[in-house]
Amino acid sequence: MFIKQCDDDNSIEFLHRTDIKIEQIENVKIEIESKAEMERIDEKINIKYCGKPKCEFLFAYYQPEQETKANMHFRSFVNLAQALDRTMVLTNVGSSRINSCQNFTFGFYYNIKALQDMFPDVKFISQKDFQNWLKERRRKPNTEHAYILPGESNYKMELLKPYPDILRTKHCLNRFDFNLNDDTVFKQFYTGKKFTRDPIKHQQFADFLVNNLRSNIEILLTSHFVFHPLFPNVSSPIPYANHYFDEAAKITNRIKPYVAIHWRMERANISMLNECSNVLVKRITQLRESFGIKSVYLATDYPIAGGKTQSQTFHLLTEDHHNAMKLLNSTFNVNTWASSNIFSSLRNDETIEKEFLGAGMPGIVDKLVCMDADYFLATPEGCGRAQSTYTTMIIDARNASMQIGERPQLKNIVNRWIKSPGDEEN
């Protein structure tokens, strides 16, 4: 007599039953055989997409900051995927963001081969291939969700009431054919206060996070609102795709020798903007005389192409901002990404054209042009946001180049055109 039960709670006990018809037994056999066949098919699909009979993915579907910081955060989650031995999903990009709602593949911003070289032990899969895997699967994979927040006196983890509907609508997870429902485990982590200031505490949190995310669930969904790396050891930024270097080279070859100015007007002292512009004009004039600087290139969050500002956090735009920019433009022939008509061959595409309404593609080109400049001036205190990851990335690249002699044309690493106490020439 057939003894095995079905997997669900409504399974029929067959042992010592006399009221079971042969047809019912055959139907249960077919159901079990069908499940076994689905398992075999799913194993083949898994091998196709992740190289082994069971896939275990980490999908960091949302990074809360713009591209430069998002680059850093994404690397944190690659570190997490490596620690958990999970395949990392290369989340889509666009509008200076890395998140699942964007239209472009990860390779639209970044060099995936270079990323693989940085993390040789991590397997990667594009968001599109991840979605294809989900579509081909006979059984929907299960998920677990982890959200990481700063704060609390010490690191900790708590279980939350599931909120799958918010994720589906706000983060476009309705586009993914996995099980995300009220049975999904939702974990919320807290880093502890100022956890990155002490390397020991930083590592303790990282270990705690890894240990509490080990599971055999097929898909680990992750997001966060932490503004620092999750792991103490931070790798170098993910290199950009080759087409950005090609586009930046067109500009630098045309305008060199040149001074590049990164003027991030966000958070400027409005009453100082006129002075900021006047002093900048004088400083550029001095540089042209001292170093034979030929051209001026401006990277800015000011809306040089019209419309909105180039930063999603820069909202207060006044007549003082406009006047400061008018003074600079009336004194010099200022080169920008807009005047250089970057990626002109691609801009007939309406989706790509939207990239130029924000800091996505233009912001990357600006960064590369600033890295190569003969002389680099960054925003001083009072004239805007003087400290940012974006500026730091430029400074670090110039410093590294100067150390190894990679860019012999560099006359400095960085200077501010208005000095603050403690500023040094370098």
TrEMBL record:
Q: Which Pfam families match?
A: O-FucT (PF10250)
Does the record bear Protease in its keywords? no
Keyword tags: Carbohydrate metabolism, Endoplasmic reticulum, Fucose metabolism, Transferase
Which portions of this protein are annotated as coiled-coil regions? Answer: none
Q: Name one GO cellular component term.
A: endoplasmic reticulum
Compartmental location: Endoplasmic reticulum
Principal cellular location given in the protein's record: endoplasmic reticulum
Task: List the InterPro entries.
Answer: GDP-Fuc_O-FucTrfase, OFUT2-like
Q: Which GO terms describe its molecular function?
A: peptide-O-fucosyltransferase activity
Its UniProt pathway annotation is: Protein modification; protein glycosylation
Q: Which domain of life is it from?
A: Eukaryota
Q: Does the keyword Isomerase apply?
A: no
Q: Name one GO biological process term.
A: fucose metabolic process
Record-stated family: Belongs to the glycosyltransferase 68 family.
**Protein name, entry field:** GDP-fucose protein O-fucosyltransferase 2
> Where does this protein come from, organism-wise?
Rhizophagus clarus
